[in-house]
Amino acid sequence: MTLYMIGIGLSDEKDISLKGLEAVKKCSFVYLENYTSSLNVPVNYLEKLYENKIILADRDLVEKRADDILDNAKAKDVAFLVVGDVFSATTHIDLMMRAKKKNIKVEIIHNASVLTAVGETGLMLYNFGKTTSIPFENENVETPYYTLKQNLENNMHTLFLLDLNPKEKKFMTVNDAIRYLLRVEIRRGEKIFTDNTLCVGCVKLGSLDKQIKAGKAKELLKFRFRDGVQCLIVPSKLHFVEEDALELYK
């Protein structure tokens, strides 16, 4: 029996690959990881196309009760669906390792990820440095700021993944992320991130109604982004091709 770990893309039920769809249809249990990201359609859209019942898997199930998933995979085929690509979150690497230690066969089926979809901004992927996340509760959190500082020192762009709570349909906004960075900047008394820092805000990358907006931090603070999964990019030194591309989104 096999644990299929399947990336299902960024937008809707149709983003799954043919290989992934074939695997899902033959599985006895289908779990959808439901805490690191979110699709733009209800779960029943997936169930209709996939012709299978979907079990929502929250953080507690995946990280603390993973054996509930793995025990099923010992006897039957099980699909573990991940929005985006399978390994965009480290928690999924842990699930794979646990399965292999239990001698459960694992098959990985990849898909698009926000880590590559940001290329649509025109920023070159190999010019990105370390990716970091900004949590909702960030009053005493400075790691994202230090990651930005380190990336800028190395002339690398920074991608900030913004927190979300799919159950409550709550998404951190680009505006919130900018306010967080400015707040840490004031506290630290440095000149890493200011009102005039170039930023790129993205919403629902990979979907038809995506939104990409480039401009100074103070300009994006006045811009109203749509609801949905969002991310913030703070570019470093730009290649002339990147400069031309960002002009399309100002």
Break the fold down into its secondary structure elements and pairings.
Elements lengths: L1 E6 L10 H8 L3 E5 L9 H8 L4 E3 L1 H6 L1 H10 L2 E5 L7 H12 L3 E5 L4 H4 L14 E3 L8 H11 L4 E5 L1 E2 L4 E2 L2 H15 L9 E6 L7 E6 H4 L9 E5 L5 H8 L3
Parallel strand pairs: 1-4, 1-5, 2-3, 2-4, 6-7
Antiparallel strand pairs: 7-12, 8-9, 10-11, 10-12
How would you concisely characterize the structure shown here?
The chain is an alpha/beta fold. The protein contains ten helices and twelve strands.
Task: Tell me what you see in this structure.
The relative contact order is 0.15. The protein has two domains: 2-112, Tetrapyrrole methylase, N-terminal domain (Cobalt-precorrin-4 Transmethylase, domain 1, 3-Layer(aba) Sandwich), CATH 3.40.1010.10; 115-247, Tetrapyrrole methylase, C-terminal domain (Methyltransferase, Cobalt-precorrin-4 Transmethylase, Domain 2). The mean pLDDT is 96. It is 34% helix and 21% strand. It has ten helices and twelve strands. It has helices spanning 18-25, 43-50, 59-64, 66-75, 90-101, 114-117, 143-153, 174-188, 217-220, 240-247, and strands spanning 2-7, 29-33, 55-57, 78-82, 105-109, 132-134, 158-162, 164-165, 170-171, 198-203, 211-216, 230-234. By secondary structure, it is α/β, with parallel strands linked by helices. The strands form three sheets. The chain has a five-stranded parallel sheet with strand order 3-2-4-1-5, with helices on both faces. A five-stranded mixed sheet has the order 6-7-12-10-11. Strand 2, helix 2 (43-50) and strand 3 form a beta-alpha-beta unit.
